[in-house]
Design goal:
By secondary structure, the chain is of the alpha/beta class. Helices cover 38% and strands 16% of the residues. Helix 1 crosses helix 7 and helix 4 crosses helix 6. The structure holds flavin mononucleotide (FMN).
Length: 201
């Protein structure tokens, strides 16, 4: 299997812990050669609230807890980044968590930020795009935008963790969810909980 090249975007929806666990899982995954990372401006506010992180300086190191070896961080205003072009050989993109604002931009092809443009490119190149949406309850605009994005080829993978694996804390809950997303894009993770894996019934 060729090593993969994945783009991760964190936007301003609740659930920054999911994004953090995703970055950690992909940095540690030897099947991944390169990770591109974009944090929306508004995600910084949520990361401050939820993870106690402030500012963009050293954000990736703070999220990972160590120096990245394969990850390149881009500004969301840098529409000239490699991932803004379909000629760049990306293997897919995950937006985790995905706000309703970013969902709307992607579903309607705005391509006005690097995150929206990279997602637009992912769809046009028919590559996997996973939108881990987070809001509750949904209004009709959200539901329509999810349908639009799904019709364009995205997978709507809501931030709804499982409970049947009895997670002991938020980090484990987030990690199991992230592993489920990674299994979906062809990167199954050791330790991912499988319901009744050993049972024939
Ligand atoms: C603490 C906090 C939690 C938020 N949670 C959500 C959420 O779960 N879903 C959502 O769509 N927006 C949420 N928002 C609002 C978004 O951050 C806001 O709509 C923002 O414009 C999204 O921008 P972005 O998509 O560029 O990151 C939250 C904002 C804050 C400050």
């Amino acid at each position: 299997m060729d090593k993969m090249n994945i783009t991760i975007a964190i936007t301003g929806a609740s659930g920054a812990v999911f994004g953090r666990e995703m970055l950690r899982a992909l940095e540690a995954d030897e099947r991944v050669e390169r990770m591109h990372f974009v944090a929306s401006e508004n995600s910084l506010r949520v990361m401050a609230e939820e993870l106690g992180l402030s500012g963009r300086t050293g954000l990736l190191e703070k999220l990972l807890g160590y120096e990245p070896v394969k990850t390149i961080q881009h500004s969301d205003t840098n529409i000239g980044a490699a991932i803004a072009s379909g000629s760049y050989p990306s293997d897919g993109m995950i937006v985790l968590p995905c706000s309703m604002g970013t969902l709307a931009a992607i579903a309607n092809g705005l391509a006005n930020t690097l995150i929206a443009r990279a997602a637009d490119v992912t769809l046009k190149e028919r590559r996997p795009l996973v939108l881990c949406v987070r809001e509750t309850p949904f209004n009709r605009v959200h539901l329509r935008n999810m349908t639009l994005a799904a019709e364009a080829g995205a997978t709507i993978f809501p931030c709804i963790p499982a409970f049947y694996n009895h997670p002991v804390d938020t980090d484990e809950m987030a990690r199991q969810f992230v592993w489920r997303v990674l299994g979906h894009i062809g990167l199954p993770q050791k330790g991912a909980y499988v319901w009744k894996a050993e049972s024939g019934v």
